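Quick check before the chapter quiz. The format below is the same one you will see on the exam, so make sure you can read both the input and the output lines.
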Amino acid sequence: MSVMVARKKVVRKWEKLPGRNTFCCDGRIMMARQKGIFYLTLFLILGTCALFFAFECRYLAVQLSPAIPVFAAVLFLFAMATLLRTSFSDPGVIPRALPDEAAFIEMEIEATNGTVPQGQRPPPRIKNFQINNQIVKLKYCYTCKIFRPPRASHCSICDNCVERFDHHCPWVGNCVGKRNYRYFYLFILSLSLLTIYIFTFNIVYVALKSLKIGFLNTLKETPGTYPSTSLTVFTVLEVLICFFTLWSVVGLTGFHTFLVALNQTTNEDIKGSWTGKNRVQNPYSHGNIVKNCCEVLCGPLPPSVLDRRGILQQEESTAQEGLCSQAPSMQESPATQGPRQAEESSMKQQDGSIPLPSAVPAPPLSDAEMPEEKQQMPGEVPVPSPDAGRAEH
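Here is the expected output.
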């Protein structure tokens, strides 16, 4: 006999979230799916710093000051911490509308716009919102089925609407938004300082070695015993990496410092939202550089609204085959069963199945087998016996 049993399987919400994201550590880590350039970032930072600590730092600590490797280690750890915090966090993804919410929004839009004649283009789905006495337009996202909050935008790579969307950065393997922008800014700032620091002391290292044994002898130097020799070829490699990194990282840091001072995002700057033909002033700027920097870098960090590790209950129906049999203590003994019941019981014990009740009715009992009080003719009135009357008296 087949029995359906319902089992409840614990499913985390991150397993059912739409979009193109990768989750690790049971939803604690959230990244974009395209992480190849992020691994290149890790390789460049770790490789350059490992060479610097392995060769130049030992010589510089002895010749100049032991504080040189200490300060370099602090910059390195801070840059790595902010990089991982930027890459592994929720940038501010806005959840998509549920089916009921999407249907209600569609009904509202149809009621507002009315019936659009066939062949005509429907009007844009826009809501007006007032911020600091200025009208800001909220656009409708056809993918997420929501009206996006102010400064939010839909990332085509991660396929999510991100609050205060700045840009999608492949170097960190994640979007940069409201919840991780400050860590992104601190990362590029610390990486710029670290690059300048390593580049400068690599030049100092080559200069000190050149004063002792000459520049050409320094370039020809081979590995040997500390501290007389080192791997100069690796030093030249570090100088080249830092030189080309300076142009991009330091320039990027300067650009985002400008944006922070104006309380503006990269997306707004590219689109020209506040510097276009309309010459609309930025409603989010306080008109003060200090206030803008404090709001962007020191303001309260909103919690994630995704609830990635929340639990969803799902029922799974599984069929189980079993035999329905009575316990031995619940079965009647053959001595107390009638002939027909004993026969059915023996059939049940032989093949293990429950016999169907017989469709043939049992034969009626004869008058001799009938009890005495049942033996009477139809329509006959029973007459009490005289012994019953005597017993009453």
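If your answer matched, good. Residues 124 and 140 are 8 Å apart (CA to CA).
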